[in-house]
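Q: Is it fine to ask for two folds in a single conversation?
A: Yes, each is treated on its own. Send the first.
Q: Here.
A: Result:
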Amino acid sequence: MNLQVEVCAVAGRGRPSRATLYTRLSRALTELNERYGGLPSPTEAQEIWSDIWHQEAHHSTALEGNTLVLREVRTLLEQGRAVGAKSLREYNEVQGYADAAKWVYGQALEPDSWHDGNLLTINELRRVHHMAMTPVWDVAPHPDATQDEGPGSFRRHDIEPFAEGMKPPTWPLVPAQIQEWVDAVCVMGERVEHGENLGVPIAEELAKIHNAFERVHPFIDGNGRAGRLVLNLVLVRLGYPPIIIFKRQRSAYLKAMRRADAGDYGALGELIARAMEDNLNRFIVPNLAGPARLVPLQALANGDLSMAALRQAAQRGRLKAVQGPDGIWRSSQRFVEAYRKSRYRTARRR
């Protein structure tokens, strides 16, 4: 099956079913690794990973209530300037998350010499939380935290049951339960690397892992951010693209987590699968496909040429593109670049 169809196809006639999505993603990931040698490293595809980085830092913190918009996040991370009239806590929250995410990407593809070869360790989990939370903690520490509950340290408080009914374990149980969780993650990783059948789609296994971490809630604050960062560390170490849960998906994400609390991982698995496919489509495939290969227009859209603009140009015959029997328009980087140059020449004549 062709990667450009399996990975990138966005249903032209309605949203694909969960089963179809899982099958399509499985085939695409297999082809990504077998035909293309896996994900490009941050060095090989700097712009792609940089875009993922900005988007993840923005949306993952926005899920927790951060109000910086994407433009402000980009300026902060690229120029080190705080624009807008937001609190220092919010700027530090984004910066800390971005620092941790950059570390996650680097460790996943080029691990430090001290990495022990396991998919994940407790020390890495604690380090991710420490990096993400230290900047915000410096200006706005959790009001109930003791000196032993700072960034990277497990909570020593019990947490009241959540409104939805989920109750995290009492704090003395946290170290043992987190060790069990890390061990389960590593076992899952070994089975994936050996090509064993997990018995469920990989996205639902990842959903189970993500939900299990959040149910332990090992830190006094920042568990959602740490959980999403560690999930991405697991993903890229397995050779899968990282995911971004968008702020507009917050309601669906929380609803899926509540269903997972009750043992139903389907909705959360579907959300994770779509996020994986989205990043394959928008970030990874254009880098792998080469300038002449046809890919869906969604994979070729960028800041100055939106998906809608490319589709309109294709429909009017100004952009060389073909519409498949699935209703999806496809073009290539080469054709899009030629179209961009023709627009520039037209604008100059005017």
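Q: Second one now.
A: Result:
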Amino acid sequence: MFVELISFVVACISALLAVAFFTLLERKGLSYFQMRKGPNKVGLMGLPQPLSDAIKLFSKEYIKPTMVNYFPFLICPFLSLFFCLLLWMLFNSYFFVNMGGMSMMLFLCVSSVGVYSVMGAGWFSNSKYALLGSVRAVAQSISYEVSMSLILMSCLLLVGSINLINLLKYQCVCWVFFINFFMFMMWVVSMVAETHRAPFDFAEGESELVSGFNVEYGAVGFALLFMAEYGNILFMSFLCSVMFFGGGMLSISMGLSMSFFMSLFSFLFIWVRASYPRYRYDLLMYLIWKSYLPCVLMILIFVSMFVKLMCYM
């Protein structure tokens, strides 16, 4: 029990440090995409910039809005960060190895429950802009969780297990990317939509909703929501690398491969944000319910028939 706790604490601290420097990578990347300089005033080449931003946000005076339901409004950012860090229990740690066959069930349960913190942040703000942003976010998350769950199920059907370790071992011979290429493309789009990132950032549409569901938050509350969002981005990049590019004959090669693809997918979020304008909300919903869902169901049926045929052979 003590070793599992230490492993979880180390994974959380590593995730928070990765979040801090991923924000720096995003600001640097967006600035070079737009042919300008990013943050470079704090320290050497702006490297301590995330730490100075954190100190600024956590030391600011906390202003309580007049109309909010105070206790639920205050607790929602902490819940959002808690659910984000809970997902990092699936990272390559002692708990991850000793979890048995229920690792993917933990991901599905926690990612489903995490929607409530976003809904609460907008609802308990008692602001129409925050409420509209939270309603958009909840509808978007629930819609794309359906496709993500079915895509995940298609990958796990190939393995015959809901354990993430078995999925890694299965890919020692061949990556799932080569078997399920169309699923991979739909997973990437669903991953961007699930994390509410551009061009699907309807929960924080500045031109329509000021700042969306977090419009009433400042100082510590805004920092916690910010950390939870970027923590989810990094975790989804990790999960994508494990699902489609896992494996490796040695633990060292497996770790290097996972780190490379995790960094690649994290940078993909920045690249997409710099390249595409915001999508239309109705087209986003049509995309999942009229295009992705029928395609995912057809591929899932095909994969299940293929697995059944291989069992008989």
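Q: Anything structural to flag on that second result?
A: Two points. Residues 2-33 form the longest helix (32 residues). Residues 61-312 form one domain.
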